[in-house]
Amino acid sequence: MSMNKIIPAFSSLAVVAGVFYLGTSERLSNSEGLDLMLSKSNTTEEQKSEEQGIRGALESIYSWRLNEKTQTVEPEWVEQAIAQADAMKTVSKRLSKKLEWRNMGPDNVGGRLRGFLMHGTKKNLWFAGSVSGGLFRSNTYGQSWTPVNDMAENLSVTCIAQLPISGKILYGTGEGGFTNLAGTKNGSPAFYGSGVYISTDDEGTDFELVNTAKDTRFWQCNEMVAHPSEDIIYVATESGLFALDYSSGTAALTRVGGGAMRDLAIGLDGSVWCASSSGAIYKKAPSATTIGPSDLVNSGFNTGGRTALAVSPDDANYVYALGSKSNGSMGALYRTTDGGENWEILFSGNSVNDLFGPNRQGWFDNVISVVPGNKNDVLMGGVTLAEWDEINGFREIASTFNAPWNRGYVHSDKHMIQWDTSTKPATCIIGCDGGLFSSKDQSVWTQINRGFTTLQLYNVAANELGYVVGGSQDNGTYLINFTGNSFGGEPSKTGISIYGGDGFDVEFSKFDPNIVFMSTYYGNVARTSNLGQSSSTFWDDRQDGGVQSDFYTTYNLWEKSLDSSRLYLAKNNQVWAAINPTDFANPVNWFLVGNNLGNGRIVEMDYTPEGNHLFIAKSGAVWRLDNLNDAEFTLEANPTANDIPDAITQKKLSIPQVAGRVVTSVNVDPNDANHVVLTLGAYGNSVYVLESEDALSENPTFTNITGNLPKMPVYDAVIDVDDANRIVLGTELGMWATEDGGATWEEANDGMARVPVFEMRAYEWRPWEGMTIYAGTHGRGYYKSESLLTNTNKLKRENVAWNVFPNPSTEKVNASFSLIKAETAKISVYDLNGKLVKNTNEDLKKGANTISISVGQLPLGYYILRMETESGVSATNKFLKK
Q: What is the model's pTM?
């Protein structure tokens, strides 16, 4: 179908108090309309600066999951990691202490949402899809929500629809069409999906993968609509437009059209409208089975970027297209009233009506919907929310400022607009980066997030009272302190916002539970002494906060007492220390402690327990600062701001395994400063966890302890304070743990979904208690495990002092040690994939023992030698067979 005419509404366009009023439109020829659409204003320096800032953020985002060689995340790598994890479910479990997790909320604020469905016949039954937290279900008209399946195969839900005859519900997975597939802790990432899922009944209580829609073509499902009267679902993906026809009871798959299809709409007559990634709009007639070049309906206009579509539920000929430009800024709003034969421009983008904001986010948040009962009235969402109708023109109808008194608040970044027509007037439902909002008059808005626990966290911290705090994607910093209404059990999971923006690193003081440190993008760090009731920055003349660092800037807090503490802050290739920031009675001074630390941002830091050393993780490198306790942190001793105190030295550690890789975390054993665990990102590798037993030496040695862990990015690690052979990992697929120093790993997601975990914290408030672990998940909020609090074997790293020799070994390896009593021990040798390659039982005597294990038949490489006696005495070490 060719596009005949385009009509602009410019000739009688006036702007009064920020509102557009439209009069009679004039028709233009195709060429005139195209010329008008192509006219561009000059790009200002301010816009260039903003664009550069976004580019910097995206570059920061790309570093964590991309393979260092290919600079991609290939679907087969993701599929392989999931398959490895699934296969390990059937293997006998070895962990003596199973980690069990409890969700802590917040249950009153949601994360990013794109998929939504109101059941066709059961009007109280609603479904909402979080892009990284999975599918949620409500049978209370959205007043409360529960997850459908914590252990669902894939939690990146992007679109939902219902077959009109059978009533079965389908949802698509994979958000990559609207944001990047590489990001993580630096900015919210997209995650690959695994296909389309269908319910086993018409109430959506259980789902299974659709066999015909599970290959890589369906790993980025952008939109999904149901035919109004036939059991057919249309799915727009990065690989094209597809139809799943269930008329015969099973899914018959048809490829309707090729190309990356981003947006989709369907009319009451069954006509399907789809928009490509470049803004091309196609129409599939009800009787057609495919679309081709002749079905392009906007040959005379195209803004060049993502274009959202909406068909009037009252008239299939009324179709609206909200187009963004190729740079993400506002393009124009178009309308056809005759099924695509002719189009008119209702308004073109300018600084007043740019829904997508100065960051030009039209590729990310772009949605439009026609108001039921009025085909000349539409709602549009980007960063802000607006309405256009023929009488009033364009106007914004909601605020993005969150305050208790602001009844017009709707969170920024809108992705979904739907209507509950069972109410009079129809209730509008908005899905956004803050979850769900509803309104009957589009003036007063209400959050409907109770139980929609999908906050996308980057970090987490806790205090001795059990309060938990964390920074989150586009939702600021949220505190859980057990106040507020409870939902689904005690204690209360109500979250309190204590700092806005994109929330990142957080710290609690261990000496005062009311002191919290918070942060937002580009190194803005603040502190509060009253749990966020008030807060302020604490810069001085030497470090005034004006020098921006990376989008995500890391810091950590070392404390000896309230008046003896240091906060280490990464700034580009430097590290600064704020001296005694937990002392609110005296000024805080900043000192440079590390400089010229190489290219690339600092990802994470960790200090040794006594505070004398600081390890710094970067892309492709680890540095160590030494003698921090010997430094004189006074203005008299350091009059020049950029001078490092004399005692401090810095050393770049030689670790061949991290070359080209992102070191996602560095973790120091709380009992042994020489014992350090590193974690690594980037798909497409075999090494993800490294360990050193001599990290403070001149030339530390790091050994690969990835073992049988699925080949996936690992983001953080915790070493058990009571048994350093027990290490817990936060990964792309939730939590994993070992009790034998990395010889074997097991999935540890009991009570938790397979949701990405970027940060964990472990606390042992009293030495006899054991450890409580907190996890900040990117899609399911906070989790807590108290499984290690009781009945934990209080083991040191080497329960017995033993010497393994020769190491390297060619024919046999010996181990010598002493026991306090005679007993039988199991001696095991594992390869680094966790496979048991040799084992034997030995009768040991009280006092000195030496055992010998023949290794001549083993292939060359590293192995783990482990001894465990009947009474629980154990020792583990690594050796090299050469």
A: 0.84
